[in-house]
Amino acid sequence: MSRFTIHGTVDRMLSSDPDFRFMALSDLHGELQRDGFLASSDEQRKLCSSLRGLLQDSSSEVQGLAMRCLPALVTKVNPSFACDIVDSLVKHLLDRSTVGVGQRSDDMSRLGAKSFRDVASLGLKSIMIELSPGKPVSQAIAGILLPQLLNGANRVDHDDVQLDCLELLHETLLRHSESLMSAHDDIQKQLLMVSLATRPMVRKRAITCISDLCVSCSRPIFDEICAFLKDALSRRAPKDMNQTRTAVLTLSAIAKTCGYRLAEHLPDLIVPLMNLFEENEMKDDEELMENFLHALDSLVSRCGHRMSPYIDRLVTLFLTASTYDPNYAFAGEVDNDGVCDEYDATMDYQDDEEEEEEEEDYS
Fold first, then answer.
1. Over the chain (363 residues), what is each successive 10-residue block's mean pLDDT?
2. Which of 69, 285, 300, 355 is deepest in the core (most CB within 10 A)?
3. pTM for this model (two decimals)
């Protein structure tokens, strides 16, 4: 793209006519897909500033095309400009009252604070997906994004902000965890606290982030996470199962992503987990039962011979669990045929009534 074309594209991006803005973004998107995109520092700054404003455009078509241009532009410009875009978006995500840099007054009247947060969240997610792990721009952006996402993940006063930050943290750890090794200790401490939240969706997203972290974290940090799980499984409160449920869900998630790392911690985790089932702590919680079985399934398949000492006990547990069907739960005792006594008595009574009716008809 020539210098003149870049200047012309920027001018059209700032036009009051939405058709001009759309055509300018279409040209920019096509150019960004080519190799060898060249622009001076001043041109990159103007492109980034103009595109950031169009992310909040009053036209949904213009806004959507700006979202498509965003990740490609971030990977083509100077890392400092890319970091400025990310920093602006994440601050916009965390601040409900902010309307964004470069936003026109007529646009502000059309879009609410929630729409702005949605735009920022989607934009940041598309950027993190597009960035290649290990590159300098990726490391710089992840370093700027991480502390602010952790701050947002602890904002219990705003559930929507908390959920968005946890989702972005998942994308960041999934792709760029190795470049954030120095922050892993702080990440695991904050995520373990968030995993005890009262809202189920917040807990689940925090647990997903913990499982992402466990793939690449150091052994001491992984040991701390396992110690947390052991404590939650062993010292459970009889009337409050939230912490126990969180521990089972976390163990299940870790077993799926990196179950082999749990092999050395099996004695501390598998025994209290089996005790939890045998003491009927799960009988009224089908979700907990399901995740318990998923966790054991993953541990058996990932840890191999390390699970051998527990196989006989596990077989008994699995056979017991296989007889449970929540669709056919009766209050009476079950006989050798697997049929409830109360069910037998009811059926016998109905059979007697039918026989009496038939005798009356024939008489």
1. 69 91 91 82 91 88 91 90 91 65 42 71 90 86 91 83 92 89 92 89 93 94 93 67 84 89 88 80 73 84 84 86 64 46 46 52 50
2. 69
3. 0.79
